[in-house]
Design brief:
Helix content of chain A is about 0%, strand content about 55%. Chain A is mainly β. The chains are: A mainly beta, B mainly beta.
Chain lengths: ~120, ~110
């Protein structure tokens, strides 16, 4: 079965860190670029980051540059997002997504991150 | 990178056709054929409906179609059904090697 299963997330204080994980199954994970997309409460989707299939290139939306780190382990079919120096406006549901044809054809179930003191 | 522009809401009656526009710039929609469309229901992950401007994934109804002209892409839904109600988002690849989403459109089936 083709799946992305997410874990991590939770409530964290401003300035702290958190790691989100995304486990892939049912497809050749190492052949695809992978993304993170987030959605703040009651708001639209926002693209966050991408990592190339071989991990050679990583790109971020300006608002998370220098704070978030995207990584992958192709031997374990796992994608990660390390969230550092968290701010209140990082509060959102975070989705991992597989890229295909310039879009995102497979999504994780989403994991909630709440930044609050 | 500024968000792509979508109408906040559209509506139509069952059986009718509607179109949702998505306007960008020469830095995204106008320069690449990597526009995709997503349907999202409350509390659920988005689902791709169209990718690469006009390609429909297997399993998506042929009532959904996509097109592009200049800096504007469009999603057309024909033969509206109650199950089509939800939020729709467009996205495009950009010349910064990043992606940008539209603000989203709420579709109401009357």
């Amino acid at each position: 079965q083709v799946l992305l299963v997410q874990s991590g997330g939770g409530v964290v204080q401003p300035g702290k860190s958190l790691v989100l994980s995304c486990a892939a199954s049912g497809f050749m994970f190492s052949a695809y670029s992978m993304h993170w997309v987030r959605q703040a409460p009651g708001k639209g989707l926002e693209w966050v980051a991408v990592i190339w299939d071989d991990g050679s290139k990583k790109l971020y939306v300006d608002s998370v540059k220098g704070r978030f780190i995207i990584s992958r382990d192709n031997s374990r079919n796992t994608l990660s997002l390390q969230l550092n120096s968290l701010r209140a406006d990082d509060t959102a549901v975070y989705f991992c997504a597989k890229e295909f044809g310039g879009g995102f054809d497979l999504w994780g179930q989403g994991t909630k991150v709440s930044v609050s003191s | 990178q500024s968000a792509l522009t979508q109408p906040a809401s559209v509506s139509g009656s069952p059986g009718q056709s509607i179109a949702i526009s998505c306007t960008g710039s020469n830095s995204d929609i106008g320069n690449y054929n990597y526009v995709s469309w997503y349907q999202q229901h409350p509390g659920k992950a988005p689902k791709v409906m169209i990718y690469a401007v006009s390609n429909r994934p297997s399993g998506v109804s042929n009532r959904f179609s996509g097109s592009k002209s200049g800096n504007t892409a469009s999603l057309t839904i024909s033969g509206l059904q109650a199950e089509d109600e939800g939020d729709y988002y467009c996205t495009s690849y950009t010349n910064n090697n990043t992606w940008v989403f539209g603000g989203g459109t709420r579709l109401t089936v009357l």
